[in-house]
Amino acid sequence: MKPLAFFxxxxxxxxxxxCAADAPGMLRxxxxxxxxxxxxxxxxxxxxxxxxxxxxxxxxxxxADLIYRQKQSFDLLLLGNxxxxxxxxxxxxxxxxxxxxxxITSIKAKWRQASGDLKLEFRVPMDVAxxxxxxxxxxxxxxxxxxxxxxxxxxxxxxAVMVDERDYLAAALLSLGASVNDLSPDNLAxxxxxxxxxxxxxxxxxxxxxxxxxxxxxxxxxxxxxxGRHGAALLYSGxxxxxxxxxxxxxxxxxxVEGSLKYLTVLAIPKNSARPEAAHKFxxxxxxxxxxGQIAVEPGFGVHLNAPWTIMPLFFHGNPGELKANxxxxxxxxxxxxxxxxxxxxENLFKGxxxxxxxxxx
Length: 362
Hints:
- By secondary structure, the protein is of the alpha+beta class.
- The chain folds into 2 domains: 9-128 and 262-321, Periplasmic binding protein-like II (D-Maltodextrin-Binding Protein, domain 2), CATH 3.40.190.10; 131-261 and 341-351, 3-Layer(aba) Sandwich (D-Maltodextrin-Binding Protein, domain 2).
- 35% of the residues lie in helices and 16% in strands.
- The chain has helices at 38-48, 60-69, 81-89, 109-115, 147-152, 165-175, 185-198, 207-212, 216-226, 237-246, 276-286, 289-296, 325-328, 343-351, and strands spanning 9-12, 27-32, 52-57, 76-80, 124-136, 159-161, 232-236, 251-254, 262-268, 303-304, 315-316, 319-320.
- Helix 6 (165-175) packs across helix 7.
- The longest helix is centred in the middle third of the chain and has 14 residues, at 185-198.
- It is globular.
């Protein structure tokens, strides 16, 4: 995924009673929006008798907010590697029992290395995502190589932004040659100048998803893209795959020359998990190649690492469906140490900016 939209959407996918850790029952999972499809949870419940309660976060920062500030408890996490590393450093994860996760052997060495846990003692890599630009080939416009090209040149209908404010800010920082993790006053001030310029060519409808996350507003802006109302979109690879699957040959994926946000999502079990046995079973289930295929083709955040690559239509860096570890995994998240401290600085930054105001498509 795709920071500042801190609105929680809790979705009860399969109802069931709470119970003891070693018996079938409700498994509480914290993950990103649209990461685990409802059908996958239903299939797991039918197979094991263990119901799954999914709480969704829009971003790593919102997930951290639920864990640290709201003190909510979960049995299993599927979050960005940055969040999970922070939890591990604080001693807040249970060690994984690999013998209870037979499918763990399918995880390739390069993804183990990318996670920073070669032996998979505390986290299991599951999917990967990159932020980039999607260009509608049917819309006449000048070429796009990166963020500056996309936002500083008027585009029909403006650039549709399908990421939140934190990601948008990171794109501005990358365009300045700055670290996406360096939120110093100087960097924020420079990014503010860039964003003020970009917002003139940003689709006005983009603002809705910043405030409400993956909501009707998110669906509406996606519909605008499919209807040809925008020449380009800033989005994550999962959504790009979804659009390119639905409309073969229509869109071109651009890996920005300035660099990208790269996310590796991993599975981990919190130390206070009430159902670690069920959590191990669900991890093993999610790593099954058949289930991986179901997750990979869903509109969503990333590309499942165990998915059959033959079904993936997107070409990343010349590789069908697969993201090269050495190009994608050079950095992970916009936030190296997930805390809530930068929130006020970012809120103040965006409060002083004008609304997106690109003219409508002709």
